[in-house]
Amino acid sequence: MAPATQFELSQPPTDAISSLKYAPESTTRLLVSSWDKYVYLYNTHPNDGEEPLLQKFEHRAPVLDVCFGQNDNEAFSAGMDWQVKRIDLETGEQTVLSTHEGPVKSVVYSKEHSLLISASWDCTLHFHDTRNPDKEPTSIALPAKPFSLSLTESKLVVAMASRLLHIYELKTTALLASQGSGTTTDIQPWQKRESSLKFMTRAVACMLNDAGYASSSIEGRVAVEWFDPSPESQARKYAFKCHRQPSLEDGMDVVYPVNALVFHPVHGSFASGGGDGVVALWDAVAKRRIRQYQRYSASVAALAFSRDGKYLAVGVCPGFEDGKEDYSAEGATKVIIRELGETEAKGKGAK
After folding, report:
1. Element (DSSP H or E) covering residue 172
2. Are 125 and 186 a contacting pair, CB within 8 Å?
3. DSSP structure class, residue 175
4. I need a surface site. Which of 108, 118, 210, 329 has the fewest CB within 10 A?
5. What residues pair up with 98 in beta bridges, in sequence order?
6. 82 within 8 A of 104, measured Cβ to Cβ
7. What angle do CA 73, 265, 278 make, to 5 degrees?
């Protein structure tokens, strides 16, 4: 197997990275959202003499999330301006789809249901039927502030404050969205859960086989759970410590938040990125770490795998882990592309 390579993209964001997303078709088309009020579109492998940065899309306020839509030329963004926007990546045209009553933390798109879902700190979800963009979105009230969204072909997982998790069936919510006209519905989630982690949830990521999800906390732990509510499946769930570094002073563990989780599209393993600047790969079924990469220069804020699983994009920028209040990410923000060997993310099987 050829040795894995990694490289930095030129012209990175000038402030902290909030999310990274690979295109649904191309394996080298990457979106990056940032606190510098821009969404960046890169070709990670440009021809000789060409720059990787294809275009920047300016927003009125910091952008907290971005995702691709139905194809490689459609994107959706969410941010501190309270707006959910559609971006035509060919023309640069931006269209406001809905406005929440607070900053919008997350957006996810379901290709199977032509459904865009946004989660805001106003404690609501908006469900947008993208086949009918003129329709007002259907709104669902949440019991707490949402921190992270993830979906499969059939389910949506919402991780919230107070360690709450709601799981919705997309078929039901898509039907409501198609009928919606700006109404608020009290549809109940398919399942309500409490996180098995004791501290605040940082990220959630669904398994691509629709079997379950992983969630992470600010206290250096990851939990893996299954959707099947049967006692046998629920007995399989587990949690483990990670992203901890020994202190230089007393040798005690310094515990870092686990900021990012993403599942590999081929092997079903997952990557975690932490405030310690480390990215690790895990076998969710065998409960084993596959490998850990060399520590990056700052906190890992976001991760994304390309559609074929060949590339891992890593967003690196200073966090608040060292307690400094004078924050500046300019010059310290990096988008790193790691090319994975054929079996690099493959699980090792049970011990």
Report:
1. helix 170-179
2. no
3. H
4. 210
5. 84
6. yes
7. 100
Compute the distance between CA of residue 160 and CA of residue 64 in angstroms, rounded to an integer.
16
Whole-model pTM: value is: 0.94
Please classify residue 49 by burial: count the beta carbons closer than 10 Å to its beta carbon, then call 0-12 exposed, 13-18 middle and 19+ buried: exposed
> 192: buried, middle or exposed (CB in 10 Å: 19+, 13-18, 0-12)?
exposed
> DSSP letter string over 147-163?
EEEEE-SSEEEEEEGGG
Q: What is the pLDDT along the chain (351 residues), one digit of tens a residue?
A: 444 589 999 999 999 999 999 999 999 999 999 999 999 999 999 988 899 999 999 999 999 999 999 999 999 999 999 999 999 999 999 999 999 999 999 999 999 999 999 999 999 999 999 998 888 899 999 999 999 999 999 999 999 999 999 999 999 888 877 776 667 787 899 999 999 899 999 999 999 999 999 999 999 999 999 999 999 999 999 999 999 988 877 778 889 999 999 999 999 999 999 999 999 999 999 999 999 999 999 999 999 999 999 999 999 998 866 665 666 666 789 999 999 998 999 987 655
Tokens standing for residue 75: 């994107």
Position 327: which residue type? Y
Cα separation, 191 vs 338, whole angstroms: 36
Among residues 59, 64, 122, the alpha carbon closest in space to that of 94 is found at: 59
Contact residues for 321 (Cβ-Cβ < 8 A; gap 6+): 256, 257, 275, 276, 299
Is the separation of the CB atoms in 32 and 20 below 8 Å? yes
Name the residue among 130, 132, 128, 150 with its Cα closest to residue 140: 128
* CB-based contact 185:176 (threshold 8 Å): yes
Query: What are the counts of helices (DSSP H) followed by strands (DSSP E) for the chain?
Result: 2, 31
* Token couple for 240: 């483990």
